[in-house]
Amino acid sequence: MDCRHFRGLELVSLKSELSLLSNIFFPFLFFPPAFTIKSISGKFVWSRERAAKLSYWPFSKTMSVDHDWSELPPELLDTIVNKLVNLRDYLRFRAVCSNWRSSTPATPKNLPCQFPWLMLPKNRSNRRGFFNLLDNKLHFLNLPEASNRRRRCGSSHGWLIIVDESPSIFIINPLTKVTFNLPPLSQLPNVINFDFYSVGREFTIQSPDGEVYTRSLKEIRDLFIKKVVLSNSPSRDPNFIAFVILNETGELAYCKNGENSWKFIDEARFFAEDVIYFDGLFYAVHKLGSIAVCDVSGDSPRVSFIETPRQIGGDIQYLVKTNDELLLVTRSLELDTDAAYHQLDVVYKTVEFRVFRLVLEGPRWEKVDSLGEKMLFLGENSSLALLASDYPGCEGNRIYFTDDYCEANYDGVNGNHDLGYYNLEDGRIEALSCYPRNSHSMLRWPPPIWFTPNPC
């Protein structure tokens, strides 16, 4: 395919592609008004009649007007690709022509973290909607793996963690459809018996206090696990670790890829508000603000603690790692009533966030009044911090949040989920354009979740 000719592309898209290439390949070049793209017999070709006469046009007179960019040397294409930061631009780059496509890997290795998409509740088909806040566009992916009989209990490094009504639990990359199986929930240490034929009481569980009780498949699916966090993308690191917060007992469990059972971290029980992973360690936070640092790289876990003065306030706590500090974010809720579909529901609504940074001298949590350029993404996903300056059109000092705190917001309730963004400067909560606050959507199960598109 000749790179001078493009079929089926919109003119606006073409100009943006050429502008992108010019900024990378010729940073001193800009396309003057005389630079036009003409349509000839359904093909788009470049026109430089007037531009060639301009003194600032960077090509010599001996250079062919119809220079074939498909013949750029591989090392130069590699330099261009390494400067791309957006997955969309990378895909468009590979779509220009066969030579460019063959010179670049199908899976990019150098892209930074992409801006999260909001995975919306399921509709009647197997297609799931993912809303991109950057361009206000809705993308649809065929994802039968996330059916109504399953619940996702985490989003980490571009992978969804999904629990079935059977004991199975697996992770999937929605873009590539690659999956990895984790040990079934029946292999948790506190499950003393699993009988698929004991309908309504399939799981027999023993609490840390010795109490024995039963749970149904549906109860285990919906209530037993709070969140799963991955150490790395499974495609990048075959030795990844899955870390689980148990909702009912406040215990922490983990497994390494390829293992057949889960292990508990007994020393870190009740450090079950949130977990993040960085620098080879898992950090789990207690309701009162202290942190358990868990090293699970060896045969048995090793735990140390960061003891801080009691952090009173807030109904939910999140841990967020930025480039230079560890943040604790508290989320305050209040009860509200919601009248919809001829019934009255009692629901929780987010009213405030507070942010603190860890000061190791002490140690202690110090209140943060402004996030500056930082944007935080909180919810059932692995907590994430990004810089607004890296994403055109975004503003910093905001906390984007989803509904992740109430089991009543799952199966069989109205779709008025609690999500939006919080402006830390003035305390305002604003709706997302795809999900107006206090609107009643017929999309109910499950609540939206942040998902970071990652093709690897």
Task: Name the descriptors.
globular; 456 residues; 10% helix; four-stranded antiparallel β-sheet; 5 helices; mainly beta; five-stranded mixed β-sheet
| Largest pleated sheet | 5 strands, mixed
- Taking the alpha carbons of the first and last residues, their distance comes to 28 Å
In angstroms, what is the radius of gyration?
25 Å
Strand order of the largest sheet: 26-25-27-28-29
What overall geometry do the principal axes of the alpha carbons give?
Answer: globular
Could you tell me the number of beta strands?
30
Mean model confidence by pLDDT:
81
| Uncertain regions spanning at least 5 consecutive residues | 1-65, 408-415
Binned, the helix content reads 10-25%
Strand residue percentage: 35-45%
Oligomer: single chain
Describe the model.
- It is a single chain.
- Helix content is 10%, strand content 35%.
- The protein has helices at residues 11-25, 74-81, 87-95, 98-103, 217-224, and strands spanning 36-40, 43-47, 117-119, 127-132, 137-142, 151-156, 159-163, 169-172, 179-182, 191-194, 203-206, 212-215, 225-230, 241-246, 252-256, 263-264, 274-278, 281-285, 291-295, 302-306, 316-321, 326-340, 343-359, 364-368, 374-378, 384-387, 398-401, 420-423, 429-430, 449-451.
- The model is unreliable at 1-65 and 408-415 (pLDDT under 50).
- By secondary structure, the chain is mainly β.
- The strands form eight sheets. The protein has a five-stranded mixed beta sheet, with no helix packed on it. The protein has a four-stranded antiparallel beta sheet with strand order 5-4-3-30, with no helix packed on it.
- Strand 18 (281-285) and strand 19 form a beta hairpin.
- The chain has five helices and 30 strands.
